[in-house]
Amino acid sequence: MNNTSTPAAFKNYINGQWQSALIPATFESYNPAHPTVSVGTFPESTTQDVELAVDAAKTAFPNWKATPAPKRGELFFKLANYIQTQKEAWAREMATEMGKPYTEALGDVQEAIEMATFMGGEGRRLHGFQTPSEFPNKWLMAIRQPVGVCGIITPWNFPIAVPSWKLFPAIIAGNTVVFKPAEQSPLMGQRMVEAFDAVGFPAGVINLVQGNEVAGKALVNHPDIGLISFTGSTATGTWIATRCAEQHKLCALELGGKNACIVWEDANVNLAIEGLLWGAFGTAGQRCTATSRLIVHRSVKKAVVEGLLAKIPTLHIGDPSIVETQVGPLIDADAIAKVERMVATAVNQGAIVLCGGKRFTEAPLNEGFYFQPTILDNVLPSMEIAQEEVFGPVLSVITVGSLDEAIAIANGVRYGLSAAVYSQDVGWALGVVERLDAGLTYINAPTIGAETHVPFGGVKQSGNGHREASNLVLDTYTQWKTISIETTPTLRKAQMD
Ligand code: UN1
Hints:
The chain is about 40% helix and about 20% strand. It is an alpha/beta fold. The strands form six sheets. A seven-stranded mixed beta sheet has the order 14-15-16-13-12-18-19, sandwiched between helices. The radius of gyration is 24 Å and the shape is globular.
């Protein structure tokens, strides 16, 4: 690709110093709305750079672990304030780097502000517990301990929010980290680490290595890393889990989704339509929580589908930097080719395109990776489009007549991240939610938009049982240590006295 201007050159951040990679190879991050425009040049780190970063994190660990957690928390409150001052600037850069519409990008940064204040507070709440012993004058307690050095590998689609979900709990819990952001959003990774630097986190607590899968694999394979936290594709997650198992390394995974929205015969149809538009086409469908299947009762199908078709032409599709834009481009050429291929396969298998189905071929949108908001009808649950993650603005409609059928279809995929039900009978909807294979469920709301103080994560192949966000995320980044204290001068034997 040709550059139209000289992009700024950025560095890694190791032991509190900005430094180039040892081998001076670089890569660029491009604007998906204007793919010839580079937003920056970044070091293409190798295994040797990862080794330096892990050494720095390992050296910093004992002091950071020994720093009282409330003191660690104070730095997180400063971090929240600092990010607040950067909110608009980061959102503008996010729109430019990865194509998220500006107003949504503000929300992405807001999640990090909330996570920073939340985790700052957890600095005063890293509770363990104390429990009575079998013996008098013997004390039993359990405390949380950090794991050590954590490798944090994050995706481009939430380039500030998702790193905050991982970095902040890891660091408040007393771990030190090596952070590798996605190669499609390195500028946002840079900004996040600048924030830690600006508010005075000690050297080595957070280290940044930019790069591609070479750096990611080096992190996963490094013997001094105790835990890998990864959000991304199920295929990569499977590889990471396998390698971590071989090394007895802890591993927390947030993977794909094939999220269903069930719209029932008594639904508030207008509300469902608004929720479907936002769930399916927000972030151009590039959320792991995006609504990709509409499972609709046949009695309301016409009303729901016609309502969607009437609203889609009113969506503002365009440059993500413009405040009014609601749908931006996909991330890159591979992404748009994948969506095109999946839609073509669905049509070959009998799906009917009700709207969209193609990339934009006319100016100005043909310059970027823009795909038309797409609704496919006549989708059968067995089709690839109904089984596999699209990560684009495509909603597949599956029509049903009974609740058992709706639930069997909703659950009949290998994923289980998010699901929604629209019905005005909330008691009935609670019963539906109980039967859905999903870690996140919504009644009368879209499948996207999780809040930071409740657990986030999926069942089945959407993850490996860990949860992010909420205080429960601390279970990922700490290990329990049980302490038994004998206060009498006698040997007493548990289970035998
Ligand atoms: C993701 O797509 O990886 O619930 C995370 C949501 C957002 C996070 C999505 N808060 O849609």
